[in-house]
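Q: I'm writing up a methods section and want to include an example of the input and output format. Could you take the sequence below and give the corresponding predicted structure tokens, formatted cleanly so I can copy it straight into the document?
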Amino acid sequence: MTSTEAAAIALQNHAALWSMGEIRASDVVNAACDALVAGLDTPGLRTLAA
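A: Here is the clean output for your methods example:
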């Protein structure tokens, strides 16, 4: 698994946990930032990370 795949999976997991109220929104934002650093890049991801 590449680092971009791992970052995408981590972001997806964080979003699911946030939607269930298990983690804070800031954890999802941090995962989005990590995904950008790992090489994922979409306008929506940039907005979420910002």
